[in-house]
Amino acid sequence: MRNEFDFAPFYRSSIGFDRVLNLLNNPQRLQAIDTWPPYDIVKSGENDYRIQMAVAGFAGSDLDVTQERNVLVVRGQKNEEKQGDYLHRGIAGRSFERRFELADHVRVDNASLTNGLLTIDLKREIPEEMKPRKIAIASAEGSQAPMQMIEGEKNVA
């Protein structure tokens, strides 16, 4: 049984959300979920996020963190050196690739590896032109109402 949602009503009443609705509508996103390596996503502030991945056994040179537009890709490729015959192998050391979809205006601020824990700090920075601003409404006579500021000081002459 397939659960498929029709997003057509949302297309009629929203502007600029095409990318989000396409992500939800994309059948490729329903791939088999790999649970390794385990990770946490933490909201550490109003515009700050942190991804923590348990990558025990990987060195910094074995890991690659790249941001491609709105996707953060973390890859791990470990160079195996055979040091004998294993009787039991419980520490995972296989290669991996983990992708995280990022919202618009989210950038990678920092990445660090400490005690087998890869920490990636993310920051959302909304450009000044996208912040809320008050729009003046002109009257019917054609005279324009004075512009009002939301934040900051008004220049008084």
The major β-sheet equals: 4 strands, antiparallel
> Which CATH architecture of the domain at 35-81 and 89-127?
Sandwich
Would you state the CATH class of the domain at 35-81 and 89-127? Mainly Beta
- One letter per element, helices H and strands E, the order comes to HHEEEEEEE
Radius of gyration over alpha carbons? 24 Å
What is the mean predicted local confidence, pLDDT? 77
Strands of the widest sheet, in order across it, are 1-2-7-6
Question: Could you tell me how far the N terminus lies from the C terminus, measured between alpha carbons in angstroms?
Answer: 70 Å
CATH topology of the domain at 35-81 and 89-127: Immunoglobulin-like
Strand segment count: 7
Number of helices: 2
Task: Kindly estimate the percentage of residues that lie in beta strands according to DSSP.
Answer: 25-35%
Which spans of ≥5 residues are poorly predicted at pLDDT below 50? none
As a percent range, the share of helical residues equals under 10%
Q: Structural class of the secondary structure composition? A: mainly beta
Explain how this protein is built.
It is a single chain. This protein has a domain at 35-81 and 89-127: Immunoglobulin-like. The protein has a four-stranded antiparallel beta sheet, with no helix packed on it. It has a three-stranded antiparallel beta sheet with strand order 3-4-5, with no helix packed on it. It has helices at 8-13, 18-25, and strands at residues 39-43, 48-54, 63-68, 71-76, 96-101, 106-114, 117-124. The protein is mainly β and 157 residues long.
